[in-house]
Amino acid sequence: MLRRGRDDSVRRHFQALSGWRIRLSDAEAKAFGAMEISVILLFVVALARLAQGDATRAGDVYAIFAYLWKFVMALDQVPQLVQQVAKLRDLDRRMGR
Questions:
Q1: Cβ of 17: how many Cβ atoms within 10 Å?
Q2: What is the value of pTM for the model shown?
Q3: For 96, which DSSP code?
Q4: Contact at 8 Å (CB) between 64 and 50?
């Protein structure tokens, strides 16, 4: 495409590329927002369940929220993992396997 030197085909290519990047960015933002809302709900539910208990101790609250925090930190790695798997699949497909 670049060797042919046609401005219109090069322009269309880069416009399409920018459109794909915008859609990808929008999808990532929506997924991140949904995940953050889910995390907030998870913490609210955990706090509500703890508040319903009769003899909730400070150590119990700390242990539960420390575990939830570790879980949330692991969830933050999921988008990068999915992206790496997609890159590896694309590379595998391009190599003809």
A1: 10
A2: 0.67
A3: T
A4: yes
